[in-house]
Amino acid sequence: MFELYCPGINACGKRREVSKSLALVRRLIFLGLVALSFLVAAPASAGERIALVVGNSDYRMVPKLANPANDAADMANALERLGYSVKHLVDLDYNRFRQALIDFGNAAKSAEKAVIFFAGHGVEIDGKNWLIPVDAAIKSEIDVYAEAINLETLIDISVMPKVIGLVVLDACRNDPFKATNVAAAGRSLVSRSTPAKGSAERPSRASGPPAPIATDMRGLAPVEVSDNVLVAFAAAAGTTASDGAGRNSPYSGSLLRHVETPQLEINYLFRIVHDDVWKETGTQEPAIYGTLPKADIYLNGDAAVAMSDGGADAERVAWEFVRSTNEIATLRRFAVQFPAGLYTAEINDRIAQLKTAEENAWTIVERQKSLAAYRAYLDLYPYGEHVESARVTLASLEKSARSGPSGGQVDMPGPPPASYQLASADTTAGNSESVEKAWDVLKESRDQGVVGRFAERYPSLRHNRLPPGSDLALRPVNSTDWMLRTSQDSDVNSCFDGDAGACARSVKTYPDYVQLQFQLCRSKGNPKGCMINAVTEARKRGLLVSAYTRSEEEKVRNREYRRVVARVHQNVGNVVSGVVSNVVGNVVSNAVSASVSAAASNAAANAASRAASASASHAASRAASWAASSAASRSASGAASSAASKAASSAASNAASRVPIPSDVRLKEDITALADTGNGLRLYRYRYRGDGTFYVGVMAQEVAQLVPAAVSRGMDGYLQVDYVLLGLEFLTYRDWIARHSHSALH
């Protein structure tokens, strides 16, 4: 880079010092270039508008396309004129496409608006939408998992920006494995082994609009997206798009003509494009998917400022859901959030009524202390202030009166009916901020009817607000998240470069990142059965459930997965209590049952404590408090239940905690972050599905990132954690609270 010129030997007498200076200059320049590259790749600043524009034309294994490179170049120029920071890329192979999405995804986290434009080959295969890199070698449908980019990755990234994420696909093509003899009249994807006669990519304009598209050309599958995301297809789901006869495709050409129009609201922009394309082709009908908020959004211009009162709007949104609940805590949060609101007086009256009715009911329960009384209370007041105590006592009574009478019916006052009008309300939110303010009131509610209905009305992947049973909620693993989190791992990057050894190591490190297994097959030359086995195994584990596509095939697959999930949830008690029955059940429950069943309450407590301690000394280390307590309360009989609960708590610190604890996030619900540990892990309060007791522990998926040696997979397929290896204890929430001072909790 620099040349040292010496006119004479004396002039170079200090050559060594000059060489050192030159080395320093070179180093400074290198560091400057590194810093510059860091600034270029840095995340978007607040309010920034960013765009990723990709045009794939020069395909190697399938027919080339004439226009995507032109479409992308012209779109990149248009977006730059609109003030977007544009990354324009052409003819991306798989790994370059992946790296581009990683960089763009990191930038999108802090952007205001983000646009992804892709022109090239795209197909729907196996119920999912795929974008085809130029190096894709797709010989069968199963190959797309290793060779193509899933549209869901682009949508996941588009959820991140604050105002809008827009995905534009001029790539709605046919499925080559459903129509192998289709004439190459548009941006179709057909094998080069069966090219159309003359390999003509475009029809002649002189002959008029293209002929109707064959019915076996399925195009892309429709998508359902939430948040402020729009996905625009050049052709409606199930149909295909034309490459066009001019410089641009009909779709890109129309979009280019209108995208720079000032103050053209985005929904109207795509309506105009739709009409243009339909008029030009006579067959191609573009489509958009997604629902934007009421406020106007522009690609050229700023969003309209909502004139409504955000606080009043949020109150109206929350009111529709709050007014139907009997949970006092949720009503109180509403009153605190909107102290001078329209419904303050009604809410306060409702709280007073519910509190009086519950206290009267609890007085009856404490007087009778019968099975029927506790059951009636739990049925009428599932969110009451005495629920935890009622559950514990009821469990004890049920075990001590297995064959005895239940106590008959109890006349107990239920929650009084609401005095205010419960007719439907107008809850159209003026902007997303109002919805999120309302959600702040409702998200901690134990009334799942309130939470579930709100999530159905206002679903949000960005805010982790997903309706129960939705495809987004069912997706146990987000491959996009894995892609972004592992982008700095050298083995992962080498794997995508084709290093089979790096793939093998990466698969072992990140077993839930299924794309690594597919790349392992690819790096080995896809030996017979490799991809089929990898995809089959991933599907069995529920890792390939589509989050966005709605093809008929995917609907069927998702319904089957829902049935599997339902069965798992029904048996989750067995999954969780497997450790209980095998470890603590033998350590505590049997000893308590044998020692205490015939004893009186006080004697039983002493016997249980001695039996549990004696048994615990032969166990591996410490029993999880939750496991011991659960096993004791479920297995002991008579007065043993109360005694076992005490015995379990004292034995918990000394019994068998060497056995891994089920800690998979998929087994848990009502999750709340509590604190961070000294080794970088986070503790959560949660309960297992189907279990009312709250525990404090870690999430196996997070532990796998920091201490992978502490995580293993059980026979049931769920992740479990060795707490001893982490230097932590697994406790009930009640025990955890008892060990922390009031100030520490705050």
UniProtKB/TrEMBL annotation:
InterPro entries: Caspase-like_dom_sf, Caspase-related_regulators, Pept_C14_caspase, Pept_C14_p20, S74_ICA. Residues 47-124 form the Caspase family p20 domain. Coiled coil: none annotated. Residues 193-213, 398-427 are annotated as: Disordered. GO terms for biological process: proteolysis. It holds the Pfam family Peptidase_C14. GO terms for molecular function: cysteine-type endopeptidase activity. This is Caspase family p20 domain-containing protein. It comes from Bradyrhizobium cajani.
